[in-house]
Amino acid sequence: MLKILGRVSSINVRKVLWTCAELELPFEREDWGAGFRSPQEPAFLALNPNAQIPVLVDGDFTLWESNSICRYLAAQYGAGRLLPQEPQARARVEQWMDWQATDLNTSWRVPFMALVRGQPTAPEALQAGVASWNRQMAILDAQLARSGAFVLGAEFTLADVVLGVSALRWQRAPMAHAELPAVQAYLARLAQRPAFVAQGDQGQA
Fold first, then answer.
1. Could you give the CA distance from residue 40 to residue 33 in angstroms, rounded to a whole number?
2. Which among 102, 85, 83, 103 is positioned nearest to 93, based on CA atoms?
3. With pLDDT > 70 as the criterion, what percentage of the chain qualifies?
4. Nearest C-alpha neighbor of 47 from the set 61, 34, 37
5. Average of pLDDT values for 106-110?
6. Predicted pLDDT of residue 203
């Protein structure tokens, strides 16, 4: 039985839970993180010295970093589902996963922490952050307009797991949103997936 350590209010934990749901993998989850057991506890640090959630425990194998966990689950248990085995097709999926973890995540940190978490932020920094977030999301919108149903075309992949939760965070942030019709249509399609409803959308920003 897979074990996932982390609270469901974490966007990174939800990536892993959604991946498990898409692959129909049974798992147990333990609450760790803000409001629950502290990742600074020695038992957790022995699994992840960064004191960050999520952590996956699969028998005697332990893994941290949410996108790496999603890749592992798809490669180990997916038999080609979610993560293609052909090198170029797989590279395209991983390209968008890496973009999510770097450029897109960097763009939302200031506005999310200010508008959702209430962190004091200078107005000009907030304005710049919102513009940056909208600008990065416009890149996703253009890709979806080209690709059709999902990030890389007709087939749902891991890129949609990590970008789906990110797009939902953008949509629910209390700020001025750019007009991105392809992103909005994409989120409506994701809402038709039972695994997204069960694990990807936990009502959290």
1. 9
2. 83
3. 99
4. 61
5. 95
6. 60
